Amino acid sequence: MPTIKDVAAEAGVTSTTVSRVLNNRGYISEETREKVYSAMEKLNYMPNEMARNLSRQKSDYIGVILPSVEHPYFSKVLHWLEHYVTKHNYKIMVCISENSREKELQYIDLLYSHRVLGIVVCSHIGETMEHLDSNCPLISFEREIAENIPAVLCDNYQGGILAANRLFDAGCRNIAIFNQPTKENIPAYSREKAFMKCCEDKKISGRVVYTDRLAPLSEEFGNNILELMKKNSDLDGIFATSDVMAANIIRACKKMGKRVPEDISIVGFDDTWISTLTYPSITTIHQPVREMCEYAIEAIVKKVKSEKVPSQVVFPVELIDRESTK
Amino acid sequence: MPTIKDVAAEAGVTSTTVSRVLNNRGYISEETREKVYSAMEKLNYMPNEMARNLSRQKSDYIGVILPSVEHPYFSKVLHWLEHYVTKHNYKIMVCISENSREKELQYIDLLYSHRVLGIVVCSHIGETMEHLDSNCPLISFEREIAENIPAVLCDNYQGGILAANRLFDAGCRNIAIFNQPTKENIPAYSREKAFMKCCEDKKISGRVVYTDRLAPLSEEFGNNILELMKKNSDLDGIFATSDVMAANIIRACKKMGKRVPEDISIVGFDDTWISTLTYPSITTIHQPVREMCEYAIEAIVKKVKSEKVPSQVVFPVELIDRESTK
Question: Which of A80, A84, A91, A97 would you mutate first to test chain B, the one with the most B CBs within 10 A?
């Protein structure tokens, strides 16, 4: 692979001159610039980004830690993070934590040692994070980690209200939220709190049905949902805390001979592509993932420039009406 | 952030000694090693991977170019590539090409300039690739690019035969393959060729139905499938060249009042998570994505060590029986 020296020799200039052309620093005559560019083209020279990064002691990578890249919510998040990282001329380094706290911490150390510009952590599962490097901006996505770490969230509480109201408007009077067992700092908990508050206000029967902690894309999870549906066969409306869960509930209803939405209405959450592929398609709460990702990357860029960013930003959600509700 | 110099000062040794401890080079007494490690721990020192990479003129990144990270096939591929890249202690840099040849070439240049160890290109859409750097191993995933670029494929021809035979065994005599318009070097073309050959051999009616070139996860694609299903309402069996397409066909059948599998049998391709989430679940052709990804990363590791790798490896596929076929 040709080096700066080769380019300099080919162009008949010094390496310093080539470097100045590359970095657009100092005065260079148009003629010299032309000579250097021709030499680069002739030798098919590629600038060494590694060397440039080292000289400024920062890479141009942004690290992203996700629990999964297969779940449609996180693959949507990854899609838009890559989009905005690339737009800012940075590169994305992807780390899959598989919901393991140990892996998350290992990945954070690894990203630090690669001198990434910043890190976006999606759905952090642990408690306090130790040895955080304050020089490396960290943004928490859809989860609150600690006070000093800016969080990008959607309005989960509002989502719970929209879902409960939609089921109420569909005529449902015996409803449930299907959720994974949650802790207070987890978004799904806000959805649950809002949903139950709404049922209370409207004086209708509302309950929480907890699923097992299974991989959401596994067949086991589908079987678990079917069991729970059989145990709760009196329900006439369900708010599922993800579209994947809603799709599993639709499948369970069909197995049980229940018609959606005639016998039971279902509202999902996220508005991922799966919500338009099932039959019936899924009425859901839209998370503005694109805007949230744009904001997360801009927050890192700002923090790199030592600009201040808000400690928490909450994006509004929206109800999308489809076929799974009356 | 503490540097090697700080660690050396803290431990009372020279920077060279610290570097030798870090890189496990030359003789270092146990006592000195202990002192250096304590100093690192005390200062919370992180080795600078950027600097280490520069000194060996290679990064420890492997680049991956994918058309999408949202499509369940490619998100499965990314999941397993990340798994095996991490297993080899390398890091993954993800580039989303969105099926644009221009973006693919830009990303390849970018990956070269970051001195990646190697590149896996998934579903390359262009023709010949220019200015390929022979120092940087490139592996083509599920697509043949050129003779000098090793390709990792699944047995698409065999997949077409298995699908046609499965429909024949379900009693279907009027069948079609739903495909996107393809070129000869594209895997879906082999599936089509095998499928039509099988129909001919069995003397049953077989046809090719081409969909429009639409984003496979969009609602527009679903509408296109519904239109095509209405135009081909005589069919009693369909081989869809992806599970996502099969899910769209199931949705279209329900909209038309056709029962799956009673009125029409459907076979998908890929065996992604969507195939167990629809109702009925999808009988499909399993691609051994995990094994293919393991092989692709090992091929890059071998090429980095200047070992030879086969120019093409074809992995066997398998029929997975589920509910969408009689």
Answer: A91
Residues 1-30 of B with CB under 8 A from A: 1
pLDDT in the model for residue A128? 45
Mutate to test the interface with A, among B56, B68, B83, B273 (most CBs of A within 10 A): B273
Q: What is the CATH number of domain B156-287?
A: 3.40.50.2300
Place of tokens 């999902």: A268
* CB pairs A-B closer than 8 Å: 131
Contact (CB<8Å) A49/B83? no
Q: Report ipTM (2 d.p.).
A: 0.85
Tell me the pLDDT tens digit for each residue of A40-57: 878 877 767 666 666 666
- Look over chain A and give the mean of its residue pLDDT values, rounded to a whole number: 90
pLDDT tens, position by position, B264-293: 999 999 999 999 999 999 999 999 999 999
**E strands along chain B, which residues?**
61-66, 91-96, 118-122, 138-141, 151-154, 174-179, 205-210, 237-240, 265-270, 283-286, 312-315, 318-320
What is the spatial distance between Cα B214 and Cα B84, in angstroms, rounded to a whole number? Answer: 32
Collapsing DSSP to helix, strand or coil, B57 comes out as: coil
Q: B201 to chain A nearest CA, in Å?
A: 35
**Contact check, Cβ <8 Å, A115/B276:** no
B67 touches chain A (CB under 8 A): no
Find the mean pLDDT for residues A286-315. Answer: 95
Q: Which CATH superfamily is domain A4-47 in?
A: lambda repressor-like DNA-binding domains (1.10.260.40)
Alpha-helical regions (H) of A114-218: 156-169, 187-202
- Could you state, in order of their start, the residue ranges of all structural domains in chain A? 4-47, 61-154+289-316, 156-287
Spatial strand order of the sheet with B237-240 comes to B205-210, B174-179, B237-240, B265-270, B283-286, B318-320
Mean pLDDT of all residues in B14-34: 82
Which amino acid is located at A264 in the chain?
Answer: I
Q: 133-192 in A: which are within 8 Å (CB) of B?
A: 133, 135
A61-154+289-316 CATH fold: Rossmann fold (3.40.50)
Which helix or strand (DSSP H or E) is residue A96 part of? strand A91-96
Q: What is the helix, strand, coil percentage profile of chain B, to 5? A: 45, 20, 40
B-chain residues near A274 (CB < 8 A): 274, 277
Q: Which residues of B touch A41 (CB under 8 A)?
A: none
Mutation site, A5, A43, A50, interface B, largest B CB count within 10 A: A50
Is residue A131 pLDDT above 60, yes or no? no
CA nearest to B220 within chain A: A276
Asked, colleague to colleague, whether B61-154+289-315 and B156-287 share their fold, the answer is: yes
Quote the pLDDT of residue B39.
87
Least confident range from A278-282, A296-300, B27-31, B322-326: namely B27-31
Query: For the segment B109-158, what is each residue's pLDDT rounded down to a tens digit?
Result: 888 888 899 999 987 665 545 556 667 889 999 988 777 889 999 999 99
Among candidates B49, B113, B217 on the partner chain, residue whose Cβ is nearest the Cβ of A114? B49
State pLDDT tens for residues B189-247.
Answer: 899 999 999 999 999 999 999 999 999 999 999 999 999 999 999 999 999 999 999 99
Class level of CATH domain B61-154+289-315:
alpha beta
Q: Which residue has the tokens 């010094």?
A: A14
Residue that the structure tokens 């080079």 belong to: B25
pLDDT, position B204: 96
